[in-house]
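thread: overnight batch results

M.L. [08:02]
morning all. the overnight job finished for the chain we discussed friday. pasting input first so we're all looking at the same thing
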Amino acid sequence: MTRHSFIQMSKLSNVKGRISYITSHARQENLYATYRTADNAFWSDLAKECQQEFKRSGADGKCIEARELIIALPEIYTAYEPQQVLEDFTEEFRRRYNVECVSALHHNKKKTNYHIHLIFSERRLLAEPDIKIATRSVFYDETGKRVRTKKEIADENGKIRESPRRDLVWQAQTPQAFAAELLFPAFEKLMQHSTEGITDDAMVVEQEMGIASVMVKGGYENIKITTPEDLLVAESFLAEK
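M.L. [08:03]
and the structure it wrote out:
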């Protein structure tokens, strides 16, 4: 690494205060240039949204609103115009990582090289609001009792082939638990041929060891986070805690 060059990163719990500090000529003796890719309203909204989400989560500690990189540039960069160096560097960072930035270029105390303070958001600025709505269909069984889902068995073309008895249908969840001395040999046998069509551990044990799995009752809140919509469901569960 070139002499006098380094990168340091820190988490910011007061992004607006930090932006004010690094871009203030009154507070920075060796400030040569400043640049931003988003206006003050964006950073205010970012801080507000981060604090609200942190409060809803109930987590301990401090809310992280943004992050800051301190980048000491090689000495050769002192030969270039400060504002251009800062703008080129910031715009390339923004293009590569698709984030909004505020940056300031300073000299070190000995004035031998530049260093850049680059604050960046971990959320993107959307051109239009992205409103997501979680929906849940309501179904009823043959007795008129409300059920969470309606299950059908379909053929290869998606046409319903039969409607199974609901008292015999289970919704499998994660995790599935097996003794190691049973599960490991099952996977060793599976690896000796095609794994096509295998969807979970239970299928491996049933197919390779000839042992049927036993179902036990779980909770509906034990969901698996797979899609963005699953996060909305999980947040609703956490909000009720």
